[in-house]
Amino acid sequence: MQAKYKPKILVVNDDTASLFALSGLLTTWADENQCSVVTAKSGEDALRHVLQDDFAVILLDVNMPGMDGFETAEAIHNRARSSSIPIIFITAFLADDLNKLRAYQQGAVDYLFTPIIPQVLQAKVSVFVTLAKKNLELKAQAEALSLRTADLQAANDKLQREIKERKIAVEQNEAKDKFLAMLGHELRNPLSAITSAASIIGFPGAKADSVERAKKILSRQSHHLTRIVDDLLDLGRVMSGKIVLDKTAVNLGEVILSCLDSLRASRPVDSYQWTIDPIDTWVDADPTRAEQIITNLLDNAIKYTPAGGSISIKKTLADGKVSLMITDSGIGISKDLLPRIFNVFVQGEHSLDRAKGGLGIGLALVRQLVELHGGDIHAHSEGENLGSTFAIVLPQAAAIQPSPDQPEVRKMATSQKLLLIEDNEDAREMTTQLLKEHGFQVLEAATGAEGIILAKEEKPGIALIDIGLPCMDGYEVARRLRADKDTSSMYLIALTGYGLREDHVLTAEAGFDSHFVKPLKLQQLILAIETFQVA
Asked: What is the separation of C-alpha 303 from the centre of its chain, rounded to a whole number of angstroms?
């Protein structure tokens, strides 16, 4: 038995000699039986001990001044914690039946008379000490069991967490594998079409109509590839909090029409029955992101609606919010899929033919962008083959009235000299050919140092500079051109694959006038140059 579970015996007697004799009879025996003896000289003293410790048994003198044995026993047993402590009354006087009855009423388990036979006393005390030891052992076992149970519960909780984490990891790994397979499929399809179209265009005996169709395919599939890459990059940026909105009043009606025009390059837009609410509605949004939201929703409706089906676009206003609902008559959404429709990489049934295409990130990106605007998005469908409705809610904005005094944009002068600094040989060659077709005199440089030399010698009015140049990056090229009086007034355009707000800040700080994200959009370049020339 451990010391913390050692039973205690309380001996109470106001007579010092009697107290010494009783405790003496028990001390040696107590040491041998792994228990201890505590003494008290009065009822009050006994109560103080009972408040501090638990006892296996109490030997209580009946005749004590002040608080006698009966009163002490009553006080002890009136306290919940000590109510079950067995009490053996001890007296030197013969007790009549009434006194014995009173003793038993106070919870006494026995009545002894002095002089006491040691063996009898030890035998009676031994019963209660043994019982106390058993109780203490049970208590210790219960505590150990409780600790073990707690350990097992903690181990079980840890195991359940690990199982859950492993399940999530497996699901994520499966989603990653499916995504990579989808990405490979989605990239190979347009790349295959582009390669074939390029071969037809380069074939000496190709007919004119075949060449024309190949050119359209090149344009359409290049546009499709650009959208895939943009969606991938933007989803990662949004989810990591790296996109900052540049909000202004945006005409939702104009955005819808613009998106439909853009989709015509890669989707059979005109194969559907369209119902479009003609009301101009203005929202507080980032124009680029608003177009991205609408394009993805329209693309989703077209993708999952058979040709000849109907697609309607309706706008409503309420409480400073604009609701846009796009409803189609397509394949609908199953009840199992509907709660997960805005999760990343989620689509309908996966099949080997991948007829519908897509990476399963469009709707996830839409939700992220809508919520970034402080809006909300919902999807509804009655089930498979019953069509679907996607509704977005965005903050309303006051309409912008067109200014009657806007200056006329002067057409670009022919033979405008332009310096192109691009280290990728194929990109430099194709961009040069494109610029030359539109009337530019193009100076080419593969490095920043070469570009600076050409700029000082030829003094072009415009420089189109790739940021990711080797040795000397585009930022440093811009800073050096600005620092030189011979080239300080050039119109500098940054060409980069990065389009975040901080990227625009970096190019502006380096001295660039404009910031273009690859791939270069020629109309964007021409408009920027025209605006620069007017200014």
From this structure: 29
Reported in sequence order, the residue ranges of 298-449 that DSSP labels E, i.e. its strands, are 310-318, 321-328, 376-380, 388-395, 416-421, 440-445
Lookup result for tokens 């030829």: 458
Give yes or no for a contact between 13 and 1, defined as CB atoms under 8 angstroms apart. no
Closest CA to 72 of 35, 98, 41, 94: 41
C-alpha to C-alpha distance for 520 and 71, rounded to whole angstroms: 102
H helix or E strand, kind and range, residue 515: strand 514-517
Q: Which residues touch 156 (CB under 8 Å, ≥6 apart)?
A: none
Q: Which residues contact 279 (CB under 8 A, 6 or more apart)?
A: 253, 315
Q: Which residue has the tokens 């009783």?
A: 22
Note the pLDDT tens digit of each residue in 374-427. Answer: 999 999 999 888 999 999 999 999 887 665 544 443 344 445 889 999 998 888
Residue 349, helix vs strand vs coil: coil
Show the beta-strand stretches assigned E in 367-502.
Answer: 376-380, 388-395, 416-421, 440-445, 462-466, 491-496
Window from 40-49, 161-170, 178-187, 246-255 with minimum mean pLDDT: 178-187
User: Around Cβ 41, how many Cβ atoms within 10 Å?
Assistant: 16
Which helix H or strand E contains 84, and what residues bound it?
Answer: none
Residue 58's Cβ-count burial label (10 Å; 0-12, 13-18, 19+) is: buried
Contact 335, 345 (CB under 8 A): no
Average of pLDDT values for 150-166? 91
% of the chain beyond a pLDDT of 90: 31
Residue corresponding to tokens 């697609």:
311
* Lowest mean pLDDT segment, chosen from 156-160, 265-269, 503-507, 514-518: 265-269
Q: At what angle do helices 287-303 and 252-263 cross, to 10 degrees?
A: 50
How many Å apart are CA 187 and CA 181, to the nearest integer?
10
Neighbours of 403 (CB within 10 A): 7
Terminal Cα-to-Cα distance of the chain (whole angstroms): 98
d(CA 22, CA 495): 103
Span 299-351, pLDDT tens digits: 899 989 999 999 999 999 999 999 999 999 999 988 888 888 887 666 554 43
